[in-house]
């Protein structure tokens, strides 16, 4: 027997019945992002692998374990499918000299991302994100941090996500991060061997990750050594602490609810200052429906002008998780305006002509190219969820008319073929 093929592990087909859900998600997302002044950007699905390595950090799980490399030919060497959108947006921002044109660039994107993860509910190898990024010298304002989180929460609400909870923390400036890293290493040093294998490996380059490790042994140590059983925050400079409190104040001023979560550190290296994550109900263990934060240092890291003091902040929402959390998994019945029925094979040319006239007039229409009994043709019209059936029988062909059957009202009338477009348009109003 010939081998059949299956969709690759961790990916899925989005079948026609589910497309209306995705279309609604995408068009709502576009509308809301635009209403906050963000403009859509589309970057390639693959990039130079070093763009991801440099942006996300060599110690991040995404770079370490999950990059899907393209290596089918010499030309593809050094390319990888994008695991996220931020790095590519910054690359494009610099390559297209947005920094020379405007002091704040606001982008959003929708599209597939790829990570070589172990698949489980809500965790896929190809998934889709709605991402938003604001980059430029004028981006270091606590209002912008608040705008980002407000936009993320607004999107989730409009997209029907239930029980969304915003968790927020600050990692401080680049200097704070270095100081906190040194402090964490000192605190953990005597207990290094009690940490899980991953955390021991991350100890030197990204000790922050120990704070959000999900393994019991690490969680216990973090609680005892760092948070001393309570919720002590990480040591920060005055400037960073003040910036964070302004962000919180801005959020409160526009009524965005949040909880401060001192152990929230995020898995990607590029973050500084504000970091946030949004969880939702109904997602099981993969309960983050979105996440983001500031990444002020990344623009310089990717070659930005040393004389410009860039700032940047953004977030991404997982679209599959949005659909899961909003309970919108049931396919929505889509329909068509008209189903054209030729009662005999020889009437098909005339039916085909009318079919095309309808489509050109912006009336959605379909027909079966296999002739069959009236019963089977009506069955097809019903299955297509047609609003009208347009029937061509012997009399209609002779008189240049059609029988127009209203599938909702179950009524039928005769209409001249010459007037059919107008007649249907009037009835669809
Ligand atoms: P992230 O936390 O890696 O951040 O991903 C953001 C969201 O994408 C997650 O909260 C989740 O909803 C979804 N997601 C991630 N991985 C998977 C997966 N394997 N399967 C299904 N959904 C997934 C970023 O990607 C950053 N680029 C966000 C950002 C933008 N930070 C600043 N700007």
Overall description:
- This protein has 429 residues and is α+β, with helices and mostly antiparallel strands.
- The chain has helices spanning 19-35, 49-56, 61-65, 86-95, 98-101, 142-158, 174-189, 197-202, 216-226, 238-253, 298-301, 319-325, 348-360, 374-383, 394-399, 420-428; strands at residues 39-40, 46-48, 69-70, 79-81, 105-114, 126-136, 165-170, 259-260, 272-279, 288-294, 311-318, 336-342, 365-367, 386-392, 401-406, 411-416.
- The strands form 3 sheets. It has an 8-stranded mixed β-sheet with strand order 1-5-6-11-10-9-7-8, with helices on both faces. A 5-stranded mixed β-sheet has the order 13-12-14-15-16, with helices on both faces.
- Helix 1 runs antiparallel to helix 6 (142-158) and helix 6 crosses helix 10.
- 35% of the residues are buried.
- The chain binds histidyl-adenosine monophosphate.
- Residues 84-86, 115, 117, 122-124, 127, 129, 131, 133, 288-293, 295, 314-316, 318, 320-321 line the site of histidyl-adenosine monophosphate.
């Amino acid at each position: 027997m010939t081998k059949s093929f299956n969709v690759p592990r961790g990916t899925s087909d989005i079948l026609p019945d589910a497309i209306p859900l995705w279309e609604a998600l995408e068009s709502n997302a576009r509308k809301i992002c635009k209403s906050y002044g963000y403009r859509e950007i589309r970057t390639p699905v693959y990039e130079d692998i070093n763009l991801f390595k440099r942006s996300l950090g060599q110690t991040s799980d995404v770079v370490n374990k999950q990059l899907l490399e393209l290596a089918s030919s010499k030309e593809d060497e050094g390319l990888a499918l994008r695991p996220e959108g931020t790095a590519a947006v910054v690359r494009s921002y610099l390559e297209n000299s947005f920094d020379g044109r405007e002091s704040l660039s606001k982008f959003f994107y929708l599209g597939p991302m790829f990570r070589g993860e172990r698949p489980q509910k809500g965790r896929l190898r190809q998934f889709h994100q709605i991402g938003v990024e604001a980059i430029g010298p004028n981006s270091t304002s606590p209002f912008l941090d608040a705008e980002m989180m407000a936009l993320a929460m607004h999107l989730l609400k409009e997209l029907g996500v239930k029980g969304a909870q915003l968790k927020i923390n600050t990692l401080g400036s680049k200097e704070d991060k270095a100081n906190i890293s040194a402090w964490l290493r000192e605190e953990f040093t005597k207990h290094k061997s009690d940490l899980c294998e991953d955390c021991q490996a991350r100890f030197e380059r990204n000790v922050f990750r120990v704070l959000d490790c999900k393994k019991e042994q690490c969680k216990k140590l973090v609680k005892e050594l760092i948070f001393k059983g309570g919720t002590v925050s990480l040591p920060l400079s005055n400037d960073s602490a003040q910036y964070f409190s302004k962000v919180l104040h801005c959020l409160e001023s526009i009524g965005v609810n949040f909880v401060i979560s001192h152990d929230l550190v995020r898995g990607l290296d590029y973050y500084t200052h504000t970091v946030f994550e949004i969880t939702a109900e109904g997602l099981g263990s993969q309960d983050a429906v979105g996440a983001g934060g500031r990444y002020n240092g990344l623009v310089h890291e990717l070659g930005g002008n040393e004389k410009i003091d860039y700032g940047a902040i953004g977030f991404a929402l997982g679209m599959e998780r949005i659909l899961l959390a909003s309970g919108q998994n049931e396919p929505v019945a889509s329909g068509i305006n008209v189903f054209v029925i030729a009662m005999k094979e020889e009437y098909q040319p005339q039916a085909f002509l009318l079919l095309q006239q309808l489509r050109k007039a912006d009336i959605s229409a379909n027909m079966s190219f296999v002739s069959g009994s009236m019963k089977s043709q009506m069955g097809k019209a019903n299955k297509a969820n047609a609003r009208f059936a347009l029937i061509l029988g012997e009399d209609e062909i002779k008189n240049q008319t059609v029988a127009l059957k209203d599938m909702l009202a179950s009524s039928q009338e005769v209409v001249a073929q010459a007037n059919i477009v107008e007649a249907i348009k009037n009835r669809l109003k």
